[in-house]
């Protein structure tokens, strides 16, 4: 049976063909309404480097959109892995463990809690897909003599997907895919675990280790050095946030200028290095959410108090200009004209 992308459903093609929907779910439902059978691949593209959470949350409910007869034409879904930026050395890490989450989503009528899904996925990854991370560590060791320091950094980074790499370099089929970005795991498990923890002492030690790790990075790759420096900046920011949080058990109210400046810094550090996302930024964002920005900080309050004074001064200046300065200029002009 021939399978074609969802564009062929607009060309009055034979209804014996199966439509594979890659653009969105609406194209799938439109094809089914036209009498085609359909497969969904939208939301299951592994080469986009989306999280297992994103794939697992892809809603496949059709009860409110299709009747029982048309629901039978919905055949299922497919996980897709295009290889513009993937070679044989990387394909295993790019396929697993996220495909296991997609498989469960397609095979099960109900979805589980995200945290429960991740617990099972992590167990499967350590047991079946990447036990002891042997290949991961071996690939990192090609870039450095201190693999432990580089691994700490790599565990907090994620590669960008198709859209994040197609304009950064002039890739061809002969471009070697052996850089730091090509070794990284699609999703940072370390970041997810740190976001879950509420142990302040553990976070203190973690942020301190980030800062110290920069001293032990031994790599000539400029991207690695920049990421390491950014991670050290994150550690300093994280230590400051923890110190502020420890001063009061209640939610901290902070200046809106300070709050949004922190967000600006995090956004900058997260994507400063091309093709790589500094996933550890999400840990700091989670901490920052425990603060409440106040729009009426001291600067805004001073402006509100001083505004009437500014208005009065402006009015006085206008009075002086109209009733004193202009007559003086006219007098001097008249005097100069006489001579």
Short characterization:
With 339 residues, the chain is α/β, with parallel strands linked by helices. The chain has helices at 25-33, 52-56, 68-71, 91-95, 98-107, 114-129, 134-141, 147-154, 162-165, 180-183, 189-196, 200-213, 222-246, 256-270, 281-288, 298-338, and strands at 3-5, 18-21, 37-40, 74-77, 157-159, 252-255, 276-278, 291-294.
Please provide a written account of the structure:
- By secondary structure, the protein is α/β, with parallel strands linked by helices.
- It is built from 16 helices and 8 strands.
- It folds into 3 domains: 1-129, Alpha-Beta Barrel (TIM Barrel), CATH 3.20.20; 132-293, no CATH class; 298-338.
- Helix content is 54%, strand content 9%.
- The strands form 3 sheets. A 4-stranded parallel sheet has the order 1-2-3-4, covered by helices on one side. It has a two-stranded antiparallel sheet with strand order 5-7.
- Strand 2, helix 1 (25-33) and strand 3 (37-40) form a beta-alpha-beta unit.
- It is an enzyme of class 3 (hydrolase).
- It catalyses: Hydrolysis of terminal non-reducing N-acetyl-D-hexosamine residues in N-acetyl-beta-D-hexosaminides.
- This is beta-N-acetylhexosaminidase.
- It comes from Rotaria socialis.
